[in-house]
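Re: the multi-chain job from yesterday

Posting the exact lines I submitted so nobody has to dig through the queue logs.
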Amino acid sequence: GENVEQHPSTLSVQEGDSAVIKCTYSDSASNYFPWYKQELGKRPQLIIDIRSNVGEKKDQRIAVTLNKTAKHFSLHITETQPEDSAVYFCAASTGGFKTIFGAGTRLFVKA
Amino acid sequence: DVKVTQSSRYLVKRTGEKVFLECVQDMDHENMFWYRQDPGLGLRLIYFSYDVKMKEKGDIPEGYSVSREKKERFSLILESASTNQTSMYLCASSRGQARSEAFFGQGTRLTVV
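And the result, structure tokens for all chains:
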């Protein structure tokens, strides 16, 4: 069936360094790729999304890239800060109601 | 401020009990979802609804049912709770159009003993 693989499961970086989280999806019909951040004890919240007609999208320190040929998409966080510490989920949707989530990446930013 | 509210933050139930998890959204969203969150498995879709009285199975519907009698309310029902249903349950809602942001509730941590 459809699935989304997310790597790494845990990522530890020094404050100020960059962090990269990678996802691979299986359904070639997927055309919407949101990223959610879940802080400890809180609900997941959308931080950025990208649609299949775009290869890259940036919002301040966060950027997402999409390679439709390889069915890869990635989240890039630059100049990481302690408040970036959280679990990040990638997801893929075909545009219908069903969104498949990755298993999550726990990011630790060390001060 | 958008809001999705789940009726309980923590629940402890006994094996075999019928359990109701309630979710209410105040954004007039057409779509509502129930997910289960387990470590290392991400968010797995149990059921979703795109309209009142409409429901569709997700990836792991076994042992669960849902009810949507009003647009703002989506209930998840565990017909006979089992220990393997101990988990974090997240409700979410989104606008009717495809490819729209999902807004999540705060989650209900259910423990079945």
